[in-house]
Amino acid sequence: MKCVGTLPLLMRYMGTLPQHESLLYQILIKKFCGGIKMKSNNYYEAAQDILKYIGGPDNITSAAHGATRLRLVLKDQKLVNKEELEKLDIVKGVFLNGGQFQIIIGQGTVNKVYAELTNIAGIKEMSTAEVKQEASKNLNAIQKLAKLLSDIFVPIIPAIVAAGLLMGLLGLAGKFGLEEYSGTWWWMMLDMFSSAAFNFLPILVAISAAKVFGCNTFLAATVAGIMIHPSLQNAWTQGTGYETIKVLGMIDMPLLGYQGTVLPILLVIFVMSYIEKGTRKIVPEILDILLTPLITVLLTGFLALAVIGPAANVIGAGISTFLTFAIDKLGIIAGLLFGGAYSSIVITGIHHSFHAVELNLLAETGVNTLLPIWAMANVAQGGACFAAFLLTKNKKMKAIALPSAISTLFGITEAAIFGVNLRYKTPFIGAAIGGAVGGAYVVAMKVGMTAVGVTGIPGIAITNSTSMFNYIIGMVIAIAVAFVATMMMGVKEEAA
Predict the structure, then answer these.
(1) Crossing angle, helix 217-227 and helix 201-213, to 10 degrees?
(2) Residue 58 lies inside a defined structural domain of this protein
(3) What residue ranges in 19-67 does DSSP mark as E strands?
(4) Count of beta carbons in the 10 Å neighbourhood of residue 461
(5) pLDDT for 2 beyond 60
(6) What is the DSSP track for 234-280?
(7) Which runs of consecutive H residues, i.e. helices, occur in 90-140?
(8) How far apart are CA 54 and CA 101, in angstroms?
(9) End of a domain among 87, 117, 138?
(10) N or C: which terminal CB in the chain sees fewer CB atoms within 10 Å?
């Protein structure tokens, strides 16, 4: 099968994990595609064509490149001729993400095209970080909030996934009657390993949030440590019954820790960033190293325990109660709505902000009831994409559709959504129907998960032991319904 850019499309998923992108892409592209080769004079022509279809040099605000993609910030997105861009042999896919117009070209080629493009356009070369900063200026308030939450929570997902997988292993061991080994050294170690990320979750969030809010990460970690200090009751392991102490004669401060919580530490570090920056402005430079950390920790620590933490706990509990109520009372209807709408939310990129909500659910209820619904929506994209593979007569689209459909089984949906289903439109509608039906099923069966960020087949490992069978059935239903719905609607070749 001729390589026509399937792998670069699949690599879009790795956009939030740039450390993996280059190595994995290089291995796969060499194995399956034999590399991408061009004559040197063609790089100039390719750059000219790209410039022509993005509105010319004057439409570029900034430009950079990653391992596989050109990353452009454009003045006017309406000037882009996306259809003509996608027809270029060198272009393997285009999409808008986080205010950046990204053009997938490929490893070893993108840097040469970029060099020609910047030379022709007369613009300076920039880093991807600089382009991201420039792109953020074009986002609306909701997109900026979603990006902020994504920047904070995506980096800590590996730790949560590891903890969730270990919880899943312990759950499976219990299901198969191995509780008798709960006193052994290996069981005790697995139990500690599985709960560590949740017990110290405020510290993980604090470090990540400090980088985003621009404050000292070590001071942030210290404040998070105050919020989970052993002197406070451990809310993660000992429940929510707690004592209070009178502060300043008027504030009843709960002697309750914030283990496993997300919203309290997020708001605390946001406030801390202003306290630290404000203190640094008024403290003499010679005393900065002494007074700024002291004042920051004192003020933030007090506000965290006496004001922000308790208030944020109430808000977090309210969010969890609302979602739990919606799923419990609305049941199938909630599953239909959430499962059907999720893929449309993915297009906007706002779905990354859901990690905060899911972590809050885990902290409050001990189970993530949203992720199974998202998982159904994801695999439904694969069912619809496979139907498109069978229906289309376009050889290039066939080459993209089959591996893209398979990738959804492992939680990678962007290739199917942006590369196939949205182009034909009807497969995307079919996937929404499949996601809705699958979502309704997992809600009806009360399927729950123990972590965030993992869907498809890998998601089985973080599914509650009592829910595992129904999770698999739900995936089969979502895929089948999406496939049948798309086959019934068909695809129009001109739509792609």
Answers:
(1) 150
(2) yes
(3) 60-65
(4) 19
(5) no
(6) -HHHH-S---EEEETTTEEEE-B--TT-SHHHHHHHHHHHHHHHHHH
(7) 110-121, 128-135
(8) 9
(9) 138
(10) N
- How far apart CA 59 and CA 415 sit, in angstroms, is 27
pLDDT, tens digit (0-9, with 9 covering 90-100), for 321-371 = 787 788 878 889 999 999 999 888 887 666 776 777 888 788 777 888 999
Does 266 lie in the same domain as 382?
A: no
Domain hosting residue 12, numbered range:
6-138
* Number of structural domains the chain divides into: 3
Q: Could you report the per-residue pLDDT of 135-170, keeping only the tens digit for each?
A: 666 677 777 777 788 788 878 878 887 887 787 777
Does residue 189 lie in a domain region?
Answer: no
DSSP 228: T
Report residue 113 as tokens: 């095209």
Paired tokens of 141: 């308030």
Together in a domain, 306 and 240: yes
Q: What is the mean pLDDT of residues 391-399?
A: 85
Same domain, 215 and 131: no
Residues 307 and 220 in one domain: yes
* Amino acid at residue number 281: K
> End of a domain among 88, 111, 138?
138
What's residue 236's pLDDT?
Answer: 62
- Residue 45, amino acid: E
Average pLDDT over residues 87-116: 80
Asked if the structure places residue 407 within a domain, the reply is: yes
Q: What does the alpha-carbon distance between residue 371 and residue 365 come to, in Å, rounded to a whole number? A: 14
Tell me, what DSSP letter sits at residue 452?
S
Give yes or no for a contact between 419 and 412, defined as CB atoms under 8 angstroms apart.
no
Domain contains 47: yes
| Interior/surface letters 70-97, b for 16+ CB within 10 angstroms, e for the rest | bbbbbeeeeebeeeebbebebbbbbbbb
The pTM of the full predicted model, rounded to 2 decimals, is: 0.67
Answer yes or no: do 433 and 338 share one domain: yes
386 in the same domain as 273: no
Q: Are residues 313 and 344 in the same domain?
A: no
Distance spanning both ends of the chain, measured CA to CA: 20
Q: How far apart are CA 198 and CA 190, in angstroms?
A: 14
Per-residue confidence at 9, pLDDT binned at 50, 70, 90? Answer: very low
